[in-house]
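Quarterly update from the structural biology core.
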Amino acid sequence: MERGKDTSLLMRDKPDPSLIVTGSRGHKRSKAWKRSHGYDSDDSVEVSPSPTTAVEVSGQTNYNDDYATEPEQSQHEPSEPPSEPPAQSERSTPVSTRPSSPDLEILNSAASSSVTDVRSKTEADRKHKFDVRFKTKTTSKEDVLKEQMKAWKLDVYNHYTMPPHISTDKSGNIVYQYKCKSLPSHPSIVLTRIRHDESTSNLQRHVRTCTPANSSETRAISSYAHGSTYTAENHQMNLAIWVARRSRPFAIVEDKELLDIFQALNTNCVTPSRHTVSRDVREIYELSKERVGDILRAYPGKLHICADGWTSPNVVAFIGTTVHWILDGKIVSAILDFIKATKAHTGVYLAARIAECLREYKIQDKIMGFTADNAANNDTLVRELSVIVPSFPGKKTRVRCFAHILNLIVKSQNLDWTFLRL
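Predicted structure, tokenized:
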């Protein structure tokens, strides 16, 4: 039988790869090597040729020569079945090429030392650049802070009281202390940062976990300003603003069809009652009133007011009062009040109610012009208002309604409409 065709002979003569003792680079190991490492010739040993694999080897097979040849066998001898490798001995031990524990400690220590050196060098470079830029030896700490704040454009700084407090740490370094702007129910938090460090990671980390930033009040305002997923606070605020701006009745929020629309958009939607919406509209008005008052009082110029009476279909009389001023070359207008008239519309009564409105906004000394129609009671109104508010010029700065004047001209002259169309 030819050897090339005798499978059993090939299996017997060729070495089993699993029986070869190899090191980390796959070199063959001799009996002398095994004895020097504490293994007998009849023992089995596992050696890892790489850090992630292990090869089981047997000590019974010896391949000392790198150029070992196959033993010759007569073609007339019967083939013998291949012998199985002996069972692994109890002393079989895995051998790894990974660094030992002391080696790992040395490597970790060296790496940690390198990182520390890099950080120290970076910190020293930052301080040097800072000193060169601001010349801190000749510039006061307050002036340095003012110059730095000019470059603080990130929104994260709006979460803290500005300017930060200047202090000194235990090492003698000048540091800035940032105090968190908090709600009354939230304790104040102060974060410290060395002044030559421009990093904002710690400041931003606090903003993400700050209780006021995640409170229901802040979420409602933020979601209304920027848009967000559904929240009950956001929905309630939007309804109140919609009813106020579009003159919708409060009871509209209880319409079944409207509620069905809300439920179709979000099954978790909770719609407030008409009484809640009415209360919210009043609260929004009071908050807006304070804001408008601050703007008007801060305006450096004079203000002009307009007033007119109106009666609703259910015979309830109101006096509308508006204010107007110039800002950046444009006319800006705001509603001051919508006064319910409880008495006859005499000039004296109207003057008293308008003066009361001006005092609420604390702008009675900033009024210059007054515009109203040509009704007779408005002549008395202007005269009485100049008495109640001495700084108001009175008749000198009264501006009559041009639309009303034009209407009177057309009626009195009986003009040809064909001429007007031309």
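Residues 141-214 form one domain.
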